Amino acid sequence: MKIEAYQIAEVINLKKFKTDFTNEPLINNSSELFYKREESQYLYLLSYGIVIFGGFNDLEKSEFLKFIKNYTENDIEEKFEDDFDVQTDPSISVLLKYNSITVTELTDDTIRIIMLNIGQSVALDYYESMTYKILSSTKKMTDELEHNGKLQSSQKDLLKFIGKTLNVKNGIIDNLYIFDSPDEAWENEHLEKIDKGLKKTFDLKMRYQDIDYKLKIVQETLMLFTDLLQNRESTRLEWIIIILILFEVFDIIIRKII
Fold it and tell me: Residue 5: helix, strand or coil by DSSP?
């Protein structure tokens, strides 16, 4: 079976989708819907904009991706996708390679854990891209400060940028349960082995920590910039007050002379 994951939007409205979709999900909660459509077809939707197919052909995928757009928010135009081959061999417990996994048999729980890890990996690709863009923008500001000795950005623009950074960070924390394995993995030694192996193969923990570390650097840098802007604003207000006082003094002097 071929597993294919796509990041198509920032949000999928799972509640609305479940109401309109005819199939009954095997897993149903606020963050995920897991369906078994045919004997060898699986569909997994994650609330943070991920669609994962198992055993679908190209036409079926294309049609569903068009259909799911009715339930998405903030669609993503860039391509963030990945695929993974799943094979069975009764003589092998778990065998992981760069882009494939071999297991003893394909159960619903096994497929779900594999699909979840691939989906999380694609989501991390998306957040890594966003983090890189934010880090690049922050570097431009630091270069500007280095060359000009001051920031050209207004306080409002900088605060909006800080808000965007915090939203990315909160989105990762809220949506990607990198360290929380499904309950099935905790209760079954074989599933736990698959889950841990996939997390290591996709390097999920290290990638998550790398994104979090970079966002903390950006956040600290931007807070420093905010302090500089506030000082600049305070200085400007002080000069305004001084000028007003001088006008008043001049006015008094002129009146006395007259």
Answer: strand
- Cα 160 to chain centroid, rounded: 18
Instruction: Report domain extents, the chain.
Output: 2-257
**Taking the CB of residue 87, how many other CB atoms lie within 10 A of it?**
13
Give Cα 136 distance to the centre of its chain.
17
Q: Write out the two tokens for 79.
A: 């391509």
Q: DSSP letter string over 199-250?
A: HHHTTHHHHHHHHHHHHHHHHHHHHHHHHHHHHHHHHHHHHHHHHHHHHHHH
Sheet holding 100-103, edge to edge: 27-28, 32-38, 41-46, 50-54, 2-7, 81-88, 100-103, 94-96
Angle at 72 between CA 114 and CA 179, to 5 degrees: 35
Give the type of residue at 250.
F
* pLDDT tens digits for range 172-206: 777 766 567 777 888 888 899 999 999 999 999 89
Count of CA atoms in the C-beta half-sphere (13 A) of 231: 8
Summarize pLDDT for 219-254 with one digit per residue, the tens: 788 777 777 776 666 666 667 777 777 777 777 777
